Fold this sequence. Notes:
single chain, 137 residues, 2 domains
Amino acid sequence: MYFTTPLCLEPRFSKRFALVLIIIHGAAILLLIPLALTLVIKLCLAIIILASTKYSRDNYLLVNKHPLYGCTIRYDEQEHRLRVFLKSGIEVKIASSYYSPQLVIIKISNIKKAMIIFPDALDMRIFRQLTVHLRSM
């Protein structure tokens, strides 16, 4: 079954994704405490982890700045493939994708960063349709 109505991807802020990032980076900082390193090295490593937190937040959590934000995904019945149109109207190809009930990862060609979408960032119906679309690829 293919959907004839196009999907517009406008994910919201994902509390679940924010929690995952906080747990991962918080655990990394906590694991520095028992290490037998000097305080200066621990502080340097903590600063690197905090920089990673900021990078992850800016590039993956705040998706409204992502090039795929607001894109339209259509299934082309004649060519049996997905067509992705950016807000500007330019058609791009999906380089790779991963989907599961917990998250969807979409990477398009010519753009380095992927879009990570958790279910709480989209309406449940749109999230399900997106996974069905990606399964048809």
